[in-house]
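re: ur question from the group chat, yeah i did fold both. here u go
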Amino acid sequence: MKLKNILCAVAVTISVNAFGQQYDLVILGGNPGGIMAAVEAARMGKTSLILERNSHIGGLPANGLGATDIATRGATTGLFSDFTQRIKAYYTKKYGKNSQQVKDCSDGFHFEPSVAEKVFEEMLAEQKGKITVLTKRQFNFSDGDLQMTGTKITGIRVVNRNTGADEYYSGKIFVDATYEGDLGAAAHVPYRIGREARWEYNEPGAGRTYEYWKSDPAEGSTGDADNAVQAYNYRLCLISDPSQRAPFIKPENYNREEFASLVEDVWTGRNTWKMMRGVTKEMMEANRKAIQNGGKSTLPGDGWGILKLVTINTLPNGKTDANNQHAAFISTDLPEENWPWPTSSWEWRDKFAKRLKDYTLGLFWFAQNDEALPQSFRDEMKKWGLAKTEYEDNEFFPRQVYVREGRRFEGMYFFTAKDALPVAEGQRPPLHKESITASHYALDSHAARKREEGRVHLDGFISYPTAVYTVPYGVIVPKNVDNLLLPVPVSGSHIGFSTIRMEPCWMALGQAAGAAASLAIDNNVKVQDVNVPTLQDRLLDEGATLFYYRDIKPSDSEFKTAQLKGLRGEISDWNYKK
């Protein structure tokens, strides 16, 4: 029996009279962070309930984010490595080890959305009797939806979206694995939304910032704090194979004016790369003439056709992960309009999700059909469509908005840019001896505001390199709630959060949350009082990397010894073997 069928059967049984149903862990959110928390807890003998609002599990990897965001492979391992190995094994078994699909899966780091969902389902299904997943369960984070006694959560109320009935569950430990931080907010954990000022933590890119893509702050960059939230979009699964693509349909509320500025961007080659500093008006007019004569844009950094609109990452079976085009003034991100999302009701969020879908479809319709655009550009755009073997129950469109950032909590440790930046050239970032995972990605934020006249790029679109860093236990632990862990809406500044918000890190933090919850139950202690060395010992035994070396892997016999030496500060070099 497939996992989906099992979940439906469980849902029917429990919804009849669920009051008082108790689990060791109650996990809000069926994304990778929540899934890994449940799997790790199950491996330690604990029961978990995952409450997922959507009809499918898997979060963003099952909704278009198929090109894994990680700068150093091997920096994050444990259950994340289990996931990537299963991805590769799937393609190897189905297509053969020398197949193009195996090559395109890039050792399991690139995958189709439907395959990611299958692998997550497989990981859950293996823990028979330990994990219950209920989909279409909505937590409204209003008064009465969370029961607390003092500083301890005792129960949660969700709405069964299939029946409209309220359901109540209790647990020993609660885990907020939502992208928004809804559970932590209901438990009154202090949180932040928006951007800190540049000078609050002396972080690059903080506050209001304009810069050419991957450049330095330009005119207008004040560094001031505000309530702006970085843009959301849909990670699209596109394909160019005519037999496998579904066409972009013009939405009913199509508004051409939203996309009109793209016309001149295409004709002139205007983009946001720093090479534009050397581009003159004469060069842009020459570009226009070249296009009029049947050519394509030749300006530095400028994309043509689909690459003007999105970035493309190859996935197996000819599919792609199409993300916002970072060098564009207009792409699939929709800044400003998402600002209310983190604290708004699901009614508002659903309206925005529909608005974002219509905007995205309208953008592609415009790029393929508007006669103000060059015919050659439109012809290139018409080669692409939605992959019709994905999201077949949702018009081939992703089911979930890419919520890059919601609430950020103020926990036992507050992660900022300094935690991810080397203390000196060639050296590591600061060592956290309470590390629960290593990770690596740039300080990376998408735009906070739409295009503004005279600006070189959209406000807030930044990227700064980091080095492999350690993430301390305190980022997932609130100060004021005894039995709550926050592995997804973690504790950090906007810039600090911008690097640890990637799915590999969230999977690792979810695994750590599952282990920490199990230890808290076993020892009858608050999550704040979990013995971190014991937690680290468990994670190392499961192949998690807490301190990254370039020359040693979890499969090496000396891996655990090397990790412990690194955490004690005995070895600061990037290599273990001298």
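okk and heres the other one u asked abt
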Amino acid sequence: MAAFKILPARSAMAALACCVAVLLGLSAVPAHAQGNAGDTVLHIGSKRFTESYILAEVLAQAVAARTGTSPVVRQGLGNTAIVYQALQTGGIDLYPEYEGTIVQEILRSDRPLTLAQMRPELAKLGLGVDIPLGFNDGYALAMRAADADRLGIATLSDLARHPELHLGLSNEFIGRADGWRGLAQRYGYRQAPIGLDHGLAYDALGKGQVDVIDIYTTDAKIKALGLRVLRDDLGYFPRYDAVVLHRLDLPQRHPQAWAAMQALAGSIDENAMITMNARAELDGVPFQTIAQEWLAARQRGEAPPEPGREARGFLAKLFGPDLGRLTAQHLLLVGVAVLVACMIAVPAGILVHARPRLRALALGVAGLLQTIPSLALLAVLISLTGAIGALPALTALMLYALLPIFSNTCAGLGEVSGSMRQAAIALGMTSGQALRLVQFPLARPTIIAGVRTATSIAIGTATIAAFIGAGGYGERIVTGLALNDRALMLAGAAPAAALALVSELLFEALQWRLRRHTRV
């Protein structure tokens, strides 16, 4: 029986290093910034909602026009906690933020602060705030106008008299210091809200699944869906003027880029922001295009383009220009994570398969890792590694891949009868030779089945990498969630499903060939 053939250790490590290097490059640099990555390139982040995507692109394109170098834009990094951590650890240099959020969520102040008052407090954290962009995008609650008229609800105080209404609020709003808890206390609400993604909440409200949602006051769908924004009659919500939150040394490290962004101060009013949001959410225009056209119109002294129902079809989104880049990122994320998991789990399985107590402990630890929610694991890994992007994403995928490979290695070796090993030793083999030439080949189909399972899991789970800027098909899914664009979400999910199917076919062909080779 042929021995199980593997690459020499040096070749395997070299291949692994090459994969990691390519992945880091691809995941760190989006399509419009590839070729410019490096220590001197500006890194701009955004949160995971439409307006933040657009503002990040506006800042990036303004810098590119002035400096001739495209910044790296890491879109959709998540809520305030994640994008703020990325800023502190140096994963990004700046991102668009709001004064009220800085005061409440970052500085934890119980009183309003001006920009001048924020700066010395932020400086203690190594951060700075500047460039007020010119508009206020506050939190508010909204409901269908017909229901508001029927129930006589015009203010947030009126809402307190209707505890029967169902509230669907974004998870960030529910957890924020300036969100639901303080609002419920101020107005005496007794409702128990359910958590919804911000982009999906409008759809749920339109279908009557919830009665009230939280909104941003510059959301495009307020007018499109005929919603009533409830007046904050007790003045709970602070102002949320858009600004740039940045690392304190940014103006010195990137003086030209900083000058380009400063020129944007006061240039975006609320109507312009609503119009840009509408072009993204209602027409499906790419964020880069919206930013480019707004900057061009501003330079000409014209109004930005109005929404015109230019929505792209599903096939245009599926076979968009980013398909090749996202496919390469997804393949490398999965390939590197599964390869590293094999390099850990297979030797570990060989070491402990004959030691029941140690095997049970190792399986318990691997099983425990599987129970950790993916986003929670990513948040922990960002904190531990001090980085966003490929490193924490690869680590998470590798940890999830350990259990099926490790358990199948133990199971496969355990299925080899003791008499087979004894016969090999009786023929003059050493214990190591018996393992390599007899036990391991017999266990090989079961081990490969574990790798097959781990690969399928990794292909699906790799979509979460986009939440921390590591790329892959999840970029489309995350953006589709932000826009409530089902076609775009499907354009991200369909290639991932196709990749999983191709993976299954390849593993089936491999196992068929191994069975045929064994019979020969």
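fwiw on the second one: Residues 1-38 have pLDDT under 50 and may be disordered. The chain has three domains: 41-134+240-311, 139-229, 320-519. idk if thats what u expected
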